Amino acid sequence: MPREHENQDHQKARSEYIRQIVQQPTTSPSFSPRRTHLPPKTIVQFWHNLNQLPVDVEECIQTWAARKSEGFRHHLFEESTAERFIASSLGSRHRRAFERCYHPAMKSDYFRLCYIFLNGGFYVDADDVCVTEDLNHLTEDGRLKLQPLCYDVGTASMVPPQSFLAPNAFDPQWVFYFNNNPLIAGPGHPVIDRALEQATLSLGEGEVEKFPEIQSATGPGNISRSIFELGMGSGFDVESHIAVLGNWESVAVSKWPLSYRNDARNWRLSNQTRFNSGKQV
Question: What is the pTM of this model?
């Protein structure tokens, strides 16, 4: 659900721009593979404290770790290893931005941008369950693979993909945007580059006086805004560098319920407040 504090005209224009992208027929990449890097067959995930990894989340993660048999590497990061990766690869500015992420979900958002920008690969959330037998087609070209989403403001609910992906499907109450799960791309992808820079700027440079909203600062709102502004402002051909995963649910499903969704580890219950890990297990 998009929750950015932006003027309505900007949000409507962005939603319409994304609607036109996601409702186009699926096509093969129109750019030369020589100008893009293929994503490595590396699955990357994050859980903030692996010493307190819930059993039900670990079960989800294992469905991705099992893809090693298909030639995929699997890397599971936590807060300390993610911070070391960012500091050693991108330096102090990005490390400080990561430190200013006030919730594990926000740290996950920011870390995935850093990792995919630098190394490329396949980032997927730790609460997704892999339900497909073949992931190889997702790494066959260098386009950024994104899951489209649509939120109905009138009913306060998500619109099913089979409804909003139909050509010319439209409702004035619908808001179209892209999820930041999964992120699949080769290293140095321009959309990830822009999203990382915007997230870094949103997290500021000094002491945190007001916590930025997670969705808009580092999450789906950030990736959606990056696509819109890159496409509208620079003449960059965004559409040829993106592949819309309209059938992502055939690849992975988000598991409900999970133990952590009922406490502060769920970002929806901790948005714009200081995270307290408490006694959660």
Answer: 0.88
